[in-house]
Structures are given as C-alpha cells and as structure tokens.
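Tip: read the tokens left to right.
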C-alpha cells in the first residue's frame, strides 16, 4: 500500500469518527444572524481578557463571563471549553475529563453552525482538486475554521488522557491528524484570502502560528523512530520553523493567542529542552526567556503560571533564594486554579535537591504522591531516592524508603500499549534497589537532567537514558 492510499484511508476514518457531532451543519436550514466585524473583535477582546483573568487565578469570574453566550458565540464557546479542559488536565480526574469532553462536544456544535457551508464546488472531494475561493468566506466563517482546528486539538488531547482502550487512543490520534489538516487549511486561507481588517488578520495569523508552530515543535521532539512514522501519516516536524512561527505569534502579544504562543515558547526553552537533552544552555537563552516573560509579568504579575516561570528562570540562573521565594508563593497562596500548585511542588523539589535538603525534597514529593495523578511512579521513586540520600535517616524513614520503592512500579502507566520511557527507567532502578539489598549507587543520578548543571551539559538527559533501556 502506497503513501497516498494510506492517507486516503485515514481520511475516510477521519470523516467517520466525529459522526456523533452535529456534522450536518452543511445542510443546516436555520438562518443564523450575521456577526459584524465589530462584534467579532469584541468577542476576541473578551476572550483575551478572560485568558488573563484565568492566568491571574480568577477562574470562577472567567466562566461566569463566558457562560451566557457559550451557545451562540464561537469565541465564548471556545473559551468556556478551553478553561473547562484546562481544569480537567490539571486534575487528571476522570469525572472532570468527561465533563470537559461534553463541553467540547457542545462547543464543536456551536462552531460547526458558524463554519462556511460547503457547496457543490466547495466540498471535501473537490477541495482536493480545486482550491476554494476563500474570499467568499465571511470574517466569522474564517475565524470559525480556526476555532474548529483548536477545538479538535482539545478533544484529541482529552481523549488521550481519558482512561480507555487502545481504540480510544487511535481515535484520539485520528482527531489530532484531522486538527492538523484543519490548521493547514487555515494556512491556505491566510495565504489566499484578502483580509479587509488588519486587526482580524493579526488575530487569525497568530492562531495559525500557534497551531502549526506547536504541532511542528511537538512532532520534532519525539524520538527518531517515531518521527518517520508521524511524517509518513502527514505530520511535519520542523523545529526551526516551529520556533519561528511561535516567535511570530509572540510578537503579536496584543492578540488573543499571542500570550499562548509566549507560554508555548517558555515551556520549550525553559522546561522541555532540559528533559529532551538539547545542547547546553547559555546566557543568551536565559536572556531570551526573560524577554519572553516580560509581557506576562506586566499582564499577570502574581499569576501562578507567571510565578512558576519566573521561579524556573531563577533556578536556571542559579539564583536559588529567588527560585524558592517565587515557587513557594504559588503553593502557599492556595490558588483556586485546581492543582496548579503541584507544578511548583515538583519544581521546588529539584531546587531543594540542589541545596541537598533531602527531607524537604521528600516532603514536597510526599504531597505529590498523595494528591497528584500525573505520574505517581516518578513521585514515589524520587521520594525514595531523597530518603536514600539521608545518612542519618531514622528507622521510620528507612521503612518509608522501602515503601516508596515498593509502590513506584504499581503506578506505571501505558499509552498505546507502551510504557512511558521515564517510568520504565524508574522501574529499572527500583528493581536494582531490591536486587542490591535496599541500596542504590548514586540514587539522585536522575537530577543531572535538571538546570542546575546548565553550564556543562555533557552527560545524557534522563529521556535519552530512558530510551536507551
């Protein structure tokens, strides 16, 4: 079977997999009121305001503001679904995930009613041969296409983290591919449509930059053996292009999605590159991160996400007191955005590792073991390693060490039939711990993956080590 036929078969599956959604919008008879450019800009501005209220830890206010129009306005509906999905991702509770999926389905119906109605010369089949005349699309229909791509990503991601069988994961992959195709069509709209309103074009362009940039960045970060497969089924993984697109979106910080491009860049430059073992970090990268953080500090100076990134950068710089102060503020303040303090608990545990305050490390990880569902295998393993570093540990701490190492393998997760590489690494180390009579050489070896050694990154990252097992 050649690549073309494989792609066509996937397209057929893609068209069927959302049959439970109101895909009959093409034949809808109801006459929807037209939305003016002024109303669309007003919706975009409200969505941007809601985003910064969310980042400033005012989620209840955000949902109350968006709920009245969530069944009629694409951006109100998209915002409501996005924030509900964010709560679900932070909590990892199945009830929250199911609730978010229902909200996403409702949002998809709202967006589908506002998308351009396919005609005989503008349907799925003829689009493969003849490019549609995107100038016939109204401003609202153009933005509905972008919102459609974004809501498909949310639905795919929620499907991935939802407990289910292999079939549900395959469905999530097909939805992700469909979202990627929708973003490519948005790029065509950007290339071939004449926009009469510059502000609406900037809003649309920043959304395309965010979508295609994030897609390429994620795909380019997967292991090489999976990258070829993803490229074969239609995904692209150009890291340089991805960073350029996200930087372009960051330059449009005044748009609704500008801040999201900034957050994506901060996650990549200050977090992901350490996990993935990219080349060593120098002062220019730290300065770039500080420049990225500046507009966020102006808009949400005391928001939990902003404080986390500020603390993370202090950690990278080696400013340990500054990192501790900012990260402690996140979990001491008891922010209402569910579980956001867990990110700071995990980060500050690494800061305490650099200070060799092993009991504080164990305390932070104990909270994560009890309250977080992200990866209890890693939390239990690292807590055990912290206790193993104590030369003067008590009998109770010794029992707790053995308990942590016993519990760690019980929570190993499998996705698409495969164990997560980092959790597999932890499982191997636990086996060695018991095989050597409750002893490990260099128990905190894993900490070489963190930014405290950014000046001389010559050893392999944790991810590289894990994939080598």
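Filled-in amino acids:
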């Amino acid at each position: 079977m050649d690549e073309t036929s494989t792609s066509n078969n996937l397209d057929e599956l893609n068209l069927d997999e959302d049959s439970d959604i109101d895909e009959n919008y093409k034949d809808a008879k109801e006459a929807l009121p037209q939305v003016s450019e002024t109303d669309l800009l007003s919706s975009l501005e409200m969505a941007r305001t809601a985003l910064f209220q969310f980042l400033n830890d005012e989620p209840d206010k955000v949902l109350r503001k968006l709920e009245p129009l969530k069944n009629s306005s694409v951006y109100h509906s998209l915002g409501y679904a996005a924030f509900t999905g964010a709560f679900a991702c932070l909590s990892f509770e199945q009830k929250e995930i199911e609730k978010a999926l229902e909200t996403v389905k409702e949002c998809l119906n709202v967006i589908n009613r506002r998308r351009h109605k396919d005609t005989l010369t503008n349907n799925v089949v003829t689009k493969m041969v003849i490019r549609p005349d995107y100038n016939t699309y109204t401003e609202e229909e153009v933005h509905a296409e972008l919102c459609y791509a974004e809501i498909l990503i949310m639905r795919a991601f929620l499907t991935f983290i939802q407990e289910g069988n292999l079939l549900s994961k395959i469905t999530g992959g097909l939805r992700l591919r469909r979202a990627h195709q929708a973003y490519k069509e948005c790029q065509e709209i950007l290339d071939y449509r004449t926009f009469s309103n510059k502000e609406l074009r900037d809003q649309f362009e920043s959304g395309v930059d965010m979508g295609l940039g994030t897609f390429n960045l994620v795909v380019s970060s997967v292991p090489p053996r999976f990258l070829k497969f993803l490229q074969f089924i239609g995904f692209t993984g150009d890291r340089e292009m991805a960073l350029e697109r996200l930087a372009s979106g960051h330059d449009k910080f005044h748009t609704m999605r500008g801040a999201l491009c900034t957050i994506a860049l901060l996650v990549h430059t200050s977090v992901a590159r350490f996990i993935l073992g990219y080349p060593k970090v120098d002062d220019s990268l730290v300065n770039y991160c500080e420049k990225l953080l500046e507009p966020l500090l102006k808009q949400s100076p005391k928001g939990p996400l902003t404080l986390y990134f500020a603390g993370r950068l202090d950690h990278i710089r080696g400013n340990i007191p500054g990192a501790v102060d900012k990260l402690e503020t996140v979990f001491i303040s008891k922010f209402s955005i569910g579980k956001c303090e867990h990110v700071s608990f995990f980060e500050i545990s690494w800061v305490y590792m650099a200070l060799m305050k092993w009991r504080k490390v164990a305390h932070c990880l104990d909270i994560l073991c009890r309250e977080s569902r992200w990866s209890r295998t890693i939390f239990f393993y690292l807590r055990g390693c912290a206790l193993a570093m104590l030369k003067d540990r008590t009998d109770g701490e010794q029992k707790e060490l053995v308990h942590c190492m016993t519990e760690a393998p019980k929570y190993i997760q499998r996705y698409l039939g495969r164990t997560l590489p980092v959790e597999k690494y932890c499982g191997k180390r636990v086996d060695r711990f018991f095989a050597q009579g409750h002893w490990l050489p260099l128990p905190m070896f894993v900490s070489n993956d963190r930014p405290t050694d950014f000046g001389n990154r010559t050893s392999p990252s944790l991810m590289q080590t894990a994939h080598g097992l």
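The first strand starts at residue 414 and ends at 415. The beta strands are 414-415, 418-419.
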